[in-house]
Amino acid sequence: MSSHLRMGMIGGGNGAFIGAVHRMAAALDGQIDLVCGAFSRDHDNCLATGQQLGIAPERCYRDIAALLAGESKRDDRGSDTGSGAQLVSIVTPNHSHVDIAAQAARAGVHVMCDKPAGISLAEVEGLARTLEQTGTHYGLTHTYLGYPMVWQARHIAGSKPFGAIRKVHVQYVQGWLANAAEKDGNKQAAWRTDPALAGPAGALGDIGSHAHSLAEFICNSRMHTLRAHLRRHINSRTLDDDGEILFDLENGATGSLISSQICAGEENGLTIRIYGENAGLEWKQMEPNSLIERRASGEVIVHRAGTDKPLCDAALARCRLPSGHPEGFIEAFANLYRDHARAIQAGTAPARSGVPGIAEALRGMAFLEAAIASSAQGGAPTAIKPPACGPDLKGLLS
Amino acid sequence: MSSHLRMGMIGGGNGAFIGAVHRMAAALDGQIDLVCGAFSRDHDNCLATGQQLGIAPERCYRDIAALLAGESKRDDRGSDTGSGAQLVSIVTPNHSHVDIAAQAARAGVHVMCDKPAGISLAEVEGLARTLEQTGTHYGLTHTYLGYPMVWQARHIAGSKPFGAIRKVHVQYVQGWLANAAEKDGNKQAAWRTDPALAGPAGALGDIGSHAHSLAEFICNSRMHTLRAHLRRHINSRTLDDDGEILFDLENGATGSLISSQICAGEENGLTIRIYGENAGLEWKQMEPNSLIERRASGEVIVHRAGTDKPLCDAALARCRLPSGHPEGFIEAFANLYRDHARAIQAGTAPARSGVPGIAEALRGMAFLEAAIASSAQGGAPTAIKPPACGPDLKGLLS
Amino acid sequence: MSSHLRMGMIGGGNGAFIGAVHRMAAALDGQIDLVCGAFSRDHDNCLATGQQLGIAPERCYRDIAALLAGESKRDDRGSDTGSGAQLVSIVTPNHSHVDIAAQAARAGVHVMCDKPAGISLAEVEGLARTLEQTGTHYGLTHTYLGYPMVWQARHIAGSKPFGAIRKVHVQYVQGWLANAAEKDGNKQAAWRTDPALAGPAGALGDIGSHAHSLAEFICNSRMHTLRAHLRRHINSRTLDDDGEILFDLENGATGSLISSQICAGEENGLTIRIYGENAGLEWKQMEPNSLIERRASGEVIVHRAGTDKPLCDAALARCRLPSGHPEGFIEAFANLYRDHARAIQAGTAPARSGVPGIAEALRGMAFLEAAIASSAQGGAPTAIKPPACGPDLKGLLS
Amino acid sequence: MSSHLRMGMIGGGNGAFIGAVHRMAAALDGQIDLVCGAFSRDHDNCLATGQQLGIAPERCYRDIAALLAGESKRDDRGSDTGSGAQLVSIVTPNHSHVDIAAQAARAGVHVMCDKPAGISLAEVEGLARTLEQTGTHYGLTHTYLGYPMVWQARHIAGSKPFGAIRKVHVQYVQGWLANAAEKDGNKQAAWRTDPALAGPAGALGDIGSHAHSLAEFICNSRMHTLRAHLRRHINSRTLDDDGEILFDLENGATGSLISSQICAGEENGLTIRIYGENAGLEWKQMEPNSLIERRASGEVIVHRAGTDKPLCDAALARCRLPSGHPEGFIEAFANLYRDHARAIQAGTAPARSGVPGIAEALRGMAFLEAAIASSAQGGAPTAIKPPACGPDLKGLLS
Fold first, then answer.
1. Residue C346 falls within a domain, yes or no?
2. DSSP β-ladder status, B300-304 and B290-295
3. Is the same domain home to C171 and C298?
4. Could you give the angle at which helices B209-219 and B358-376 cross, rounded to 10 degrees?
């Protein structure tokens, strides 16, 4: 019998947001079972959450250590026929990501972690060394890399007719922090604007990190230098809530990145445009099933998602439905979980799983640190430290 | 512990389409477990499908009768702590829907059935009588009634400022039967164009039935008379693949319904526009998170889906994510499963569950039969037989 | 010296709407000079209008007869070097169109007439006979046939890869008559709802006539039979303000036409979709520079207007600007004036001018009369009388 | 009799592009007559152009000096009843703009000039001093300030509910210089990439100048500091064809400006987004009749152009047609000509005409020079020199 992968969750108790998204994403394809969790530091909340989710109280743990210990006692945890958790999903605030991930890895448990990977490049470098040793899988939920049309964009941008990539403009704008929501009982806003929990990057860490990974992924090239201008629009804040970055990619392209959570009225406005010598591409996350290609010859093509459409294999593999049946954010997220589970079960090297991993985590943290440093120096050109990790972990860029 | 609802599936073996959609929809919210199935009349296919889904071979049954028998032997099937299936999902071709549903109901097992409900009004009337007796739940997956903005449209259309509804124009156009796909090994096309399996309505049964339910639902009024013109564009077909219907609603509104699967190039083009005395609404399934309201005063408002948006309660209850994180077809479908499961577990009367049920099934079949009769008489005005079912089953229209 | 064509205008005094549009359209390309007019039956209004337009008082006439008489006295009216009006633009209410046009034609003056051509097929047939004799040009401002992407649509729909045309769905919906605007001092509403001035067709005459001509033009085929259901939503009205028509074209295609002015909130919603065996086309007047082609093969192409785009010659000839510089309603209207003026100056046969003429006028009137007759008989199938006019006047359909 | 304004044109001979646009814009409203021109330095071309336009050969002049001399001899040139040109339209390459404008002004002839105003701030400062003395009108065709929804955007952005403006992001991307079109006989490309004719700014002068004026206008605030990164993607070029600018406005807002003509496939992609404390606005030139407002409260409103819409007075004054009848680039351009003509005829102070003038010209040139200086220094923060001109000329910003 094809077995399901057994998953525990760290964080995601009642009142949290992203935990529920991870659970839906993991559940969608019916291949991952949520079997345990340490859903909250408030154990009553943990138990209540577990009850709602149908998790037995004895598998509602106080923390990651207890979870790893408890699950390790179950027979054959590592095997398909065992019952202990094989994977943990980390959906806590950023400051605890690395520690939890490292504990899991050392216990031989695979990890799926919400982004950003941590709060400093140094700690993520430590995690990378741990993963080199444990050989366990580590996935980072850069959700937007789960969308089929993002893979199609990468396919077209890398094709010969597109020509060399010259420009990439990416923006990620939201409006939910236009006012001081953190003072009005919004828990999301509270921890995301608190450097102790969120780390040194505010909007940039929360959403700019997605824009960075998306640009690198579609262009299949690393960002090496940037000039950043970060800002706070609410006086009481200490972290950026808005900013612009100009950057250079290794392939010679240049571009801009806008990251803001004070763009009043904006929902989840992630948009990217990439220009080659002969054509341009435009993708908007809020209309994710269309990818517009405009050719210098004057033709405009709308590439559409769907199992019945003429798309590249990687894009098709990320569609579940025929065209016209819209798939969205949860499906993109579920693609990451599905591919992560498949790679774990098949023993595929993480770098070949199609899921962002520790290499992307390192690049993301290096990007954040370079941006903060540049901004502190008035937008001075600043190099982004290249990630160092072995071939098995080297990530999605070729 | 809050328990999951245990579900079996009839149909949906390898090679089928809609079964996988039902499984994803049922799985999404983590409240329904697929525990058994009779996935195919080919038992090898059934077993292979079960294996892929992680279903034990002893719970892969040969047919509905075997499934009901086998599951009934499990302790406390009807209780939360038992292990037998409490619900069956029916995803077979139309001709077997009623028989399977009736068997399940008589065995005290709840039903979620793909639409249309059957192949004749008479057989669905029989099923309605059965359900009156068994008191079990019956849901019909008119997917589009799971979209939050459809509920928002109904809310606005029923509000005083909108004024009396005058017009409704709905169209559902697809292109996948523009050519004789049924002769090229397309299994979906094969059974849907075969009256023995699909019943007497072709495109009208497959998608026109959705358009009908959507129009009635948003307008909160029953269609009572129609004039239909159905057509076949591929000579070898015996069922309609295209047609137009003009109709009257009980609230005095008139409108048009286009149902076609030969509109080459169209994906899943379900669009509806409703006009009141003072405003109009437009909703397109392919961009489901927006509902456009145009007021006679000149204002144009885009109502957007999202848990953070100013929407009616019923719409909000069908959003999982903040605005800008697109939800689509699977989420709409999952809303039906979630609400069906909730009503079953809470013992809510079916007519209050928010899920289309036997009343909608009856109206849908009466609509199809009236349309076929009208078309046979050159578009003669034809009354639609009103459904007869008790108050507990009377459906979503007030 | 290349001379300008000299034009007079009948109607279009202060307070009118469409007259100003005709003047802008005629002026845009700098080839037509407005030199005189009978702008209003109220001669003070006529003089005031003339003054605003810079027309000398002696060329502000009381009516068409006076204008023709006055202008005929100017030297060499018919020649490029003369000074009398060579063309009259008729922008009065419908009931006077034919008489004015016939007077002009008999005086050797060319005509551009607002649609519909008149208030009965019989009177337009009389005009057709007059034009056969006079050999003067007659243009009918079916504005939408001036849009480049409408010509591109016709080009694609007529091409081999598109396959035989099977379906055409056209709708023209407005909301400005959703309330009884004619009782609130709206002059446009007043005459358009008055059968003495507008003729026997209300919304159908005003905008349904455009939908009819657009469908025939793009499909390059005549509508021969229809079933019409016309309606009045404001009790005090005697003319239709809403309706649906099902129709057959000579090429075997079938379709639907919606014509309504009570669709509250709608602006000027003319949309057409055409389906062939292998592809579909969609054009929306409110976004006129895009034409969407969806192919059965799964490709979606957006054909865009612009002098730099890969379009057919006829479409390119109707673009003034490179792509991305939006052209709209006035430019489409101006294309009709420009082509009419060119044909007049070059002596091109009217049927080759690219401008709708008396053949379209006859078909339009026959369509209106058939629709009214059909509706009066509960939607009975009704043949549309084919136009009878000689080869020089036979119109745009091949 | 209300008289037409008489206009001459400098440049715009056969083979040119923008001259024809100016002529259509001037002609549209029937208030300006083109009576003479110096259409080309090639006098044969000048004569041929004149003939096509219906201009008598004796009013086809060799240059501006000859035109001014020739027209001055006509009786009562300055009066409504005279016949000499009262206004010249300058559509030559940039390097000659200032000299021609100054000659005209000194001759008492008003000017409408294509942008940018010249090739250096110094020469435009000289022109400003001339205009202070002559008191003649000077208009600069920043076309996009003629769109009604741009005025509506300014109205909303300046309203109290919008809150203080925090951000503005504007981009103007085209693709027509993605390849070395200047080497393939494209005259437009040839002069625009030649610093002797275009001045020191390439794409930035051609289109970045529009983006700058649009941002300042909608925000009603001056840009005071910028950081620019300009680039050339074709080796043989000496002028920028691509670049990004980060900037500060006097009102405290910050933003970004993208200006590129190498974005392959882009048509005329001018887009602006402005964010206040409580709402955001988005306007796209390619869909100019819609202005999207997204409020922090969650509401999304589409403000639509049209004489029947609830818009501010300034926006309504720039609409000619009811909503749904698309107006575009030529109509926006014509609004500038119409308002310029009205101001000239009414003796309105230029700064109150609603038409960009010498103040905008000075700011535009100061912007270009600051950007070039900043880019030469690696993006160093650079102040933009404030314009100095008297109150009558001080421009559109309050």
1. no
2. antiparallel
3. yes
4. 120
Residue B165 and residue B275 in contact, taking contact as beta carbons nearer than 8 Å:
yes
Secondary-structure percent of chain D, ordered helix, strand, coil, rounded to 5: 40, 20, 40
Tens of pLDDT, residues A23-42: 999 999 999 999 999 999 99
Could you tell me if D92 and D215 lie in one domain?
Answer: no
CATH number assigned to the domain comprising residue C20: 3.40.50.720
- Residue B272 within a domain: yes
Q: What is the DSSP string of C297-363?
A: TS-EEEEE-STTS---HHHHTT--S-TTS---HHHHHHHHHHHHHHHHHHT--GGGSSS--HHHHHH
- How far the first Cα of chain C sits from its last, in Å, is 36
**Is residue B13 assigned to a domain?**
yes
What is the pTM assigned to this prediction? 0.97
Say whether D295 sits in a helix, a strand or coil. Answer: strand
> Are A287 and A368 within one domain?
yes
Q: Are residues D78 and D194 in the same domain?
A: no
Q: Return the HEC string of chain B.
A: CCCCEEEEEECCCCCCCHHHHHHHHHHCCCCEEEEEEECCCCHHHHHHHHHHHCCCHHHECCCHHHHHHHHHCCCCCCCCCCCCCCEEEECCCHHHHHHHHHHHHHCCCEEEECCCCCCCHHHHHHHHHHHHHHCCCEEECCHHHHCHHHHHHHHHHCCHHHCCEEEEEEEEECCCCCCCHHHCCCHHHHHHCCHHHHCCCCHHHHHHHHHHHHHHHHHCCCEEEEEEEEECCCCCCCCCCEEEEEEEECCCCEEEEEEECCCCCCCCEEEEEEEECCEEEEEECCCCCEEEEEECCCCEEEEECCCCCCCCHHHHCCCCCCCCCCCCHHHHHHHHHHHHHHHHHHCCCHHHCCCCCHHHHHHHHHHHHHHHHHHHCCCCCEECCCCCCCHHHCCCCC
Look at residues D109, D143, D177 and tell me which one is the last residue of a structural domain: D143
Both structure tokens of A134: 């444990």
The boundaries of the domain holding residue C81 are: 5-143
Q: Which H helix or E strand runs over C37? A: strand C32-38
> Which CATH number goes with the domain that contains A307?
3.30.360.10
The residue assigned the tokens 């006086």 is A235
CB-CB under 8 Å, D175 with A264: no
Whether A76 shows a pLDDT value over 70: the answer reads no
Q: Which residues of A touch B175 (CB under 8 A)?
A: none
In terms of domains, do C134 and C154 share one?
Answer: no
User: Distance, in angstroms, between C113 CA and closest chain B CA?
Assistant: 30
Chains that touch B (3 or more CB pairs under 8 A): A, C, D
- Mind listing the pLDDT tens digit for each residue in D97-149? 999 999 999 999 999 999 999 999 999 999 999 999 999 999 999 999 999 99
ipTM above 0.90, yes or no: yes
CA angle C298, C304, C307 (to 5 degrees): 145
C186 CB-contact burial (10 Å; exposed 0-12 / middle 13-18 / buried 19+): middle
- Residue in A298, A301, A302 nearest the CB of C310: A298
Ramachandran sector of residue B209 (left: φ over 0; alpha: ψ -120 to 50; beta: rest): alpha
Reported as a pLDDT band with limits 50, 70 and 90, residue C16 is confident
Residue among D149, D300, D319 with most chain B CBs within 10 A, to mutate? D300
Burial class (CB in 10 A: 0-12, 13-18, 19+), D397: middle
CB-nearest partner of C3 from D23, D54, D321: D54
Amino acid symbol at B296: A
Are residue D172 and residue D128 in the same domain, yes or no? no
Q: Give the total number of structural domains in chain C.
A: 2
B-proximal residues of C, 313-352, CB under 8 Å:
none
- Domain for residue B343, yes or no? no
